[in-house]
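Slack export, channel: ligand-projects

TW: morning all. Re-posting the request from yesterday since it got buried. We need the structure predicted with the small molecule present, not the apo form. The ligand is flavin-adenine dinucleotide; the SMILES is in the block with the sequence. No rush, but it would help planning for next week.
GE: picking it up
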Amino acid sequence: MRKENFTAQTNCEVLEVLTDSTGKRATGVTYIDSSGDKWEQPADLVIVAAFTFENVRLMLLSGIGEAYDPVTNKGTTGRNYAYQTANGVTLFFDNKNFNPFIGAGAVGMGIDEFNNDNFDHSGLGFFGGGSIRVTPIGSAPIGYRPLPPNTPKWGSKWKRALKDNYLSTMSIGCEASSYTTRTNYLSLDPNYKDPHGRPLLRITFDFAENDLKMAQYCTGKVAEIAKSMNPREMIVKPMTGHWSSVPYQSSHVVGGFIMGSDPSTSSVNKHLQVWDVPNLFVVGASAFPQNPGYNPTGTVGALAFKAAHAIRHVYLKRPGEMISA
Ligand SMILES: Cc1cc2nc3c(=O)[nH]c(=O)nc-3n(C[C@H](O)[C@H](O)[C@H](O)COP(=O)(O)OP(=O)(O)OC[C@H]3O[C@@H](n4cnc5c(N)ncnc54)[C@H](O)[C@@H]3O)c2cc1C
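GE: finished. pasting the full token output, ligand included:
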């Protein structure tokens, strides 16, 4: 930003990536500024990095790639959307003090023995797994209300249970994989529109049987660890049933404009360069073809550096496909 030839336009919303009549070359973007004025920004190179959902929505709105159709299993824009499975065990102790109001994002301990293919899946009937972690992030007294099973929902017994358990409760989480299915995908919503009259993004998702089986197994392993710590009581909570958009579970949403080696099943190559539109790059977790049992941002950052490196050292020297389709 300190460079004289750099301009950052803040509070602007990109509406569309423009392409020429062949559809194989991006010519710029249109955007709207904070006064509501619409602009066209011509460009030789367009890099979209607007988060998983908006990356996919912009590509669908701009007609980049073919929209995924779960019936025919054809099309790439919107395919391989994946979520994550959030599981955990809560341990209630007597006479322990975990000082739950103290914490920091990176204070914690994790084990990876039951993540993805780190263990033998023979006979288990599922694949995938999760990262088992205790991460004290600082739980505010009103937001954090650990209550043992069968506590009344209100009144003096509820207050007493909260007081008795606030300091002496801890939990072990298991952030686990979610593998893509043919029926989980992203598309433009036929009904709901944004203030500019453009369709919002629609998420079509439910947990696959594989992920629910994996959640049962891995949470069982967490429960074994928890039991050996001799708590007074435990709540074991694997992910079960159907996905609901209501309770917060995870913000680790991935896929929809995925990286791959085959243009018929992926949208970008390993440099995040769009197949068939070589001067367009789409950066973010939208490129993940699957979701493992990890937080995504380290990998998002690594992919961004990798793409930037390829643009600088390969693409700018000879603009065009860095890998031929
Ligand atoms: C509540 C929450 C907790 C999270 N916790 C973790 C965690 O603990 N660990 C972890 O690894 N990840 C976590 N994540 C995920 C993490 O935030 C994302 O992986 C990461 O931010 C992705 O980076 P990005 O650059 O792709 O997108 P973003 O960081 O979302 O950046 C995209 C930018 O594009 C802008 N933008 C979007 N649309 C447009 C448009 N049309 N025109 C112009 N600009 C646009 C946005 O304003 C934004 O500034 C969390 C996410 C949430 C929501």
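GE: first-pass observations. The pocket of flavin-adenine dinucleotide is lined by residues 13-14, 49-51, 54, 251, 284-285, 295-297, 300 (CB under 6 Å). The helical segments are 51-61, 156-165, 209-227, 297-315.
TW: perfect, thank you
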